[in-house]
C-alpha cells in the first residue's frame, strides 16, 4: 500500500460504514451508525474513513471535535480505529500519518484516542497500539475517569 486518504463520514456513507463494521476485526454494535447517530445532538460527528489505493476501506475512526481536538467519539465507551482484514502495522502507521495531516489541514490541535479493548476483538487487532507506541504517543488520564 502506497497511499491512504481520508474521507470524512457523511450520511451517504452509512451502508459502507456499517458493512465494514460488521466484517471488521474489532468492531462492535457501538460503531453501527444507527447507534452512533443517536448521540448526534451531544457529539457532532466528525468520523473519518481511511481508504487505500483501490478506494477500499482500511479503517474507520469514529470521532468528534471538541476544543479544537479530534477525539474518539464521546458518545461511545471506547473508540479508536475499527480495522478490517487488510490492516497491518504499516497501514495503521500510515493511517496515523494521514490523520495527523488531516488535523493540520483542518486547524485541529491534536488527537485524543481511545483504543477498542482487546476483549471486544473478534480477531487480534492491536496494530494501532503498536503504531502509537512507535509514535511516542502519551497516555493521559481524562479528568473524571478512573
Mean pLDDT: 90
What general outline do the C-alpha atoms trace?
globular
- Overall domain count: 1
Order of neighbouring strands in the sheet with most strands: 1-2-3-6
Q: Major beta sheet, specifics?
A: 4 strands, antiparallel
Distance between the termini: 39 Å
In angstroms, what is the radius of gyration?
Answer: 14 Å
Instruction: Report the portion of residues in β strands.
Output: 15-25%
- Compute the number of strand runs: 7
The named CATH superfamily: Gcn5-related N-acetyltransferase (GNAT)
CATH first level: Alpha Beta
Which stretches are poorly predicted, pLDDT < 50 over at least 5 residues?
none
Structure classification? alpha+beta
Walk me through this protein's architecture.
There is one protein chain. The protein has 146 residues and is of the alpha+beta class. It has one domain (5-134): Aminopeptidase, CATH 3.40.630.30. It has four helices and seven strands. It has helices at residues 14-23, 33-36, 89-105, 127-134; strands spanning 5-8, 48-51, 57-61, 63-66, 69-72, 82-83, 110-112. The strands form two sheets. A four-stranded antiparallel β-sheet has the order 1-2-3-6, sandwiched between helices. It has a three-stranded mixed β-sheet with strand order 4-5-7, with no helix packed on it. Strand 2 (48-51) and strand 3 (57-61) form a beta hairpin. It is globular, with a radius of gyration of 14 Å.
Please outline the helices and strands.
Elements: E1 5-8, H1 14-23, H2 33-36, E2 48-51, E3 57-61, E4 63-66, E5 69-72, E6 82-83, H3 89-105, E7 110-112, H4 127-134
Amino acid at each position: 500500500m502506497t497511499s491512504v486518504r481520508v474521507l470524512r463520514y457523511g450520511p451517504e456513507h452509512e451502508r459502507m460504514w456499517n458493512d465494514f463494521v460488521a466484517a471488521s476485526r474489532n468492531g462492535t454494535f457501538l460503531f453501527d451508525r444507527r447507534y452512533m447517530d443517536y448521540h448526534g445532538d451531544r457529539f457532532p460527528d466528525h468520523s473519518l474513513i481511511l481508504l487505500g489505493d483501490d478506494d477500499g476501506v482500511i479503517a474507520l475512526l469514529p470521532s468528534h471535535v471538541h476544543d479544537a481536538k479530534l477525539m474518539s467519539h464521546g458518545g461511545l465507551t471506547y473508540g479508536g480505529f475499527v480495522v478490517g482484514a487488510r490492516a497491518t502495522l504499516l497501514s495503521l502507521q500510515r493511517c496515523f500519518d494521514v490523520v495527523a495531516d488531516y488535523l493540520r489541514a483542518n486547524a485541529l490541535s491534536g488527537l485524543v484516542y481511545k483504543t477498542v479493548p482487546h476483549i471486544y476483538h473478534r480477531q487480534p487487532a492491536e496494530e494501532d497500539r503498536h503504531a502509537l507506541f512507535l509514535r511516542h504517543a502519551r497516555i493521559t488520564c481524562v479528568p473524571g475517569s478512573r
